[in-house]
Design a protein that fits this description.
MetI-like fold, 0% strand
Amino acid sequence: MNSQAERGSGERPRIDVPRTSAAGFVALAIVSWIYIVSGDSGLWELFTVETWKEAGDFLRRLVGLETDGTSAFLDAASWKKALRLSVETLAMSVLAAGIAGAAALLTFLPGARNVGFGQSGGARSRVGVAAFFVTRGAFAFTRSVPELVWALLIVFVLSPGVLAAALALAIHNYGILGKLSAEVVENLDPRPARALRAAGAGWGQTLLYALLPQVLPQFITYLLYRWEVIIRTTVVVGFVAAGGLGREFRLNMSFLHYDDVGLLLLCYLFLVVGVDLASAGLRRLAR
């Protein structure tokens, strides 16, 4: 008993991680707000009359209430141009999702640890292990570089346009989609694959009949979720890749055509909502 008491008294007290994390977050929040309020951050400008007056003037120009000529909302040519750019932006997102999905579909199986290390019924080999590390490295590298940076790099090789923007979006989302799909494979029940291997099935047959049927519904779901993210990023990438609504948005902001900016934002809103609804319907079918 004494030895147990001595061992108990010698143990270090355990740290309550959730409470410590919450206390640290609160402390950092307080320090941050003290720095913002006391520093030259411009926070107090939010409460001045001039700021709210300028915001009101900007909103009136944005919705076309104050323009030098005919408002873009009442101009048929502006609507036609905005709708054409919306279709171009939608095509950009579909192309990006298609490229990312096709590349991830071809590579996410080698990127799964249980496949690369032979834990799903196959024999472990140096080729499988090497393919695992190379594929996982590709996933990490492509998703670590933002879409905007990829677009800046791609326009040095390709002409600015829909293809350059779609490739930038596809490369970044390939890494995300590939990693998520590989983790789905790692969490699968290995017994069906092992049973097929024990029955004499080849490795290709095991992948085709045991792993892919379990992974594909979740893969399609992830792909549709990434499509929703891609459509929201097209405008930002279009700023530098000169494609879709993003390019026109940047030009109109530069020329102070705020009513045209408002029209583009309205079309972009409809586009995002439409893609969300389409994605939700397709996900229900995939399940």
